[in-house]
């Protein structure tokens, strides 16, 4: 990769959003839930974040919320992914699957 490609990639809207998203993923892998949520929130809140990156950040933030015990916020983020118009179908499918698993576990635990 030449320096021009690197510079334009890191300073484009997509590049900036992906940078925060990737840092959120790294923090989630290290079980730094608050740090991951913070990075995903920055990614989601950036005004020119591409829809696919925003959907992935919402989905991953939902997973971190659920992992940290805040199921309500996790469900909210998954619902937001499903409500998006321009979302990668793969991300929507995963969000539907996660919601179904959460509902199934909830039904089993209440029995």
Structure description:
This protein has 111 residues and is mainly alpha-helical. It has one domain (3-109): Serine Threonine Protein Phosphatase 5, Tetratricopeptide repeat. Helices cover 81% and strands 0% of the residues. The chain has helices at residues 3-11, 13-29, 33-45, 51-67, 71-83, 89-109. Helix 1 (3-11) crosses helix 2 (13-29), helix 2 (13-29) packs antiparallel against helix 3 (33-45) and helix 2 (13-29) packs parallel to helix 4. It is globular.
Tell me the major beta sheet: none
Mean pLDDT: 89
The secondary structure category is: mainly alpha
User: Strand-and-helix sequence, N→C?
Assistant: HHHHHH
CATH superfamily: Tetratricopeptide repeat domain
The best one-word shape is: globular
CATH class: Mainly Alpha
Please specify the SSE layout and strand pairing.
Blueprint: H1 3-11, H2 13-29, H3 33-45, H4 51-67, H5 71-83, H6 89-109
Features:
about 110 residues, mainly alpha, Serine Threonine Protein Phosphatase 5, Tetratricopeptide repeat, 6 helices
């Amino acid at each position: 990769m030449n320096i021009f490609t690197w510079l334009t990639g890191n300073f484009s809207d997509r590049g900036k959003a992906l940078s925060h998203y990737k840092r959120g993923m790294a923090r989630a892998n290290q079980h730094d839930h608050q740090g991951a949520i913070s990075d995903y929130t920055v990614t989601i809140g950036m005004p020119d974040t591409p829809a696919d990156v925003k959907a992935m950040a919402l989905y991953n933030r939902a997973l971190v919320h659920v992992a940290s015990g805040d199921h309500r916020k996790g469900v909210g983020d998954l619902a937001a992914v499903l409500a998006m118009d321009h979302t990668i179908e793969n991300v929507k499918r995963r969000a539907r699957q996660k919601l179904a698993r959460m509902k199934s576990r909830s039904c089993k635990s209440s029995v």
